[in-house]
Amino acid sequence: MAQAKVTRVVIVGGGISGLTCAFKLSQTEQFARGLLHICVLENRSRFGGIIETKVVDDCIIDSGPDSFITNKPQMLTLARELNIESRIIAVNKENRGALIVSNGALVPLPPGFVMLAPSKLSSFFQSSVLSLRGKLRTALDLVIPPRKELTDESLAAFVRRRFGQEHLDKLAQPMVAGIYVGDAEKLSAAHAAARFVAMERTAGSVIKGLRVERKELAARDLKDESSGARYGLFASFDRGMAVVVDSLLAALSQPNIELCLDTTVQAIAYRPGQSERFSVSSSSSQSWQCDHLVLATAAKVSAGLLKDVDANLSVQLSKINSASSAVCNFIFERKDIAHRLNAFGVVVPELEMLAHNLSVLAVSFASVKFARAPQDKVIVRAFMGGIKRDSLLEKDDQQLIDLALADLAKLIGLSGRPLYQAVHRWIDSMPQYNVGHQSLIADIENTSSVVGLHLGGAYLHGVGLPDCVASGYKCAESVSRLLAQEV
Ligand SMILES: Cc1cc2nc3c(=O)[nH]c(=O)nc-3n(C[C@H](O)[C@H](O)[C@H](O)COP(=O)(O)OP(=O)(O)OC[C@H]3O[C@@H](n4cnc5c(N)ncnc54)[C@H](O)[C@@H]3O)c2cc1C
Fold first, then answer.
1. Do 187 and 292 belong to one domain?
2. Of 187, 213, 245, 312, which has the highest C-beta tally within 10 A?
């Protein structure tokens, strides 16, 4: 009897997207029957991509992402499939909320403020962040009719239209810069403010939409509390985000799975009609032949790799910009910080950066957010760079540290020297979902005629970790589907 053919899948990129794809493929019937060989090729000398956790003096410090949103279920599903659900931790109950720099000082974001807009006008009116005129303009959202056109617009245009310029400058811009390290004038409202754009359409006003959502959440919270399955909006893992990477790697340590580090894929050849359609070669002249190729790399990397495979697709992919940022991680003695640290972090409006000569876009009090350090220590993470300030990244590590420390002295009354400091540079790591991104991605996903090519990663349908997990799942499903058709 003829032996069944083993299908070879190569996954380029060992970040969360690529590893999730490999894991999901390893759970298929084809893999269980020995009909699938999976190979993950990773450029760095460790897996995880932007996810990296270090433990220093009993402090757990993430260099990249430190949490994930739970209202998108994919990370929770992955944790369940990896048997690490019990290792998920919720954010601390105390000191929830964020601070914002206003006139050079830290003030709380108005209670009930949700990323771009207030859900409780009473507390919003008590806040000092906007002038009375600015607050009244925000409240006009209740009566301004929804925009008729359904075309995409910039996030800045959306906020200006609904809430006014002061609201954009002092509240919305810093919140968005903190998340996307992007430019509100270019970011797509349909992506960066999808929920709020939908509220404008369905409830006629964002504030009204948020009120409806608040009531629904309160009702759901009551229900969830009684079922006991609740983490709150953000969660992490007990030993940092690397827990999920380590668990994926443990699950992938089995025959028929090859995990290759220090392997920079440099060229791909496509040979349609042949049984192993792709030839993938690395900078060290090694090569892998495969039937299915998953590219779980940044858009620009994928664009470069596909130049000779599908020129049109490569051009489309190269249109997606990404921003670079630096994270300065510190451990301080608690006694060296004067501020109460009664929040999870700080966002800094661009106006304040200019007026007070500040360099940080945002600061996270990581050990206030999660139990991550002994009582007498504090983990502080300072975020710098982004699409509008990427020239900062030309500075060397010590210069970035010095700038961050100077800002922390001004903002939280830091007096001592750090017990630990480290700079992590994330170059071209945050894809920018600019106006028109959705139609560009639709083009990318619909135009490729390369059989067996599957695209994954943060530039497609969301930058958050659950989105990347979803993209890994989707790539695995698309490989499986094609395999089933080919049998
Ligand atoms: C500073 C920062 C903080 C963030 N914080 C959060 C957060 O708190 N919560 C959240 O949900 N999201 C956060 N994000 C977003 C999230 O971390 C990323 O979107 C996600 O980790 C991307 O995963 P990925 O696997 O798609 O890409 P990556 O992690 O970038 O993985 C791609 C991999 O491909 C490899 N590679 C590249 N070129 C090649 C090549 N030629 N050959 C072989 N391998 C190659 C790279 O080395 C890399 O390991 C943050 C992002 C940044 C930059």
1. no
2. 187
Minimum CA distance residue for ligand 1 atom 35: 13
Is there a single domain that holds both residue 312 and residue 381? no
82: enclosing H helix or E strand: none
Q: What is the mean pLDDT of the chain?
A: 94
How far is ligand 1, taken at its centre, from the CA of residue 173, in Å? 24
Higher pLDDT, 233 or 281: 281
Does 441 fall in a domain? Answer: yes
CA of 429 to the centre of ligand 1 (A): 6
Measuring CA to CA, which residue among 101, 145, 109 is closest to residue 127? 109
Report the separation in Å between the CA atom of 462 and the middle of ligand 1, taken as the mean of its atom positions.
Answer: 12
pTM reported for the whole predicted model:
0.95
* Closest-CA residue to 242 (of 48, 472, 67): 48
Q: How far is the CA of 127 from the centre of ligand 1 (A)?
A: 36
Residue located via tokens 């810069």: 177
User: Which atom of ligand 1 is nearest the CA belonging to 426?
Assistant: 53
Examine the pLDDT at 309 and tell me if it is beyond 70.
Answer: yes
Same domain for 221 and 252: no
Which conformational region is residue 233 in: left (phi greater than 0), alpha (psi within -120 to 50 degrees), or beta? alpha
Say if residue 274 is in the same domain as residue 334: no
Could you tell me the CATH number of the domain that includes residue 282?
Answer: 3.50.50.60
Domain that holds residue 213: 110-227
256 domain residue, yes or no? yes
Ligand 1 atom index nearest CA of 69: 11
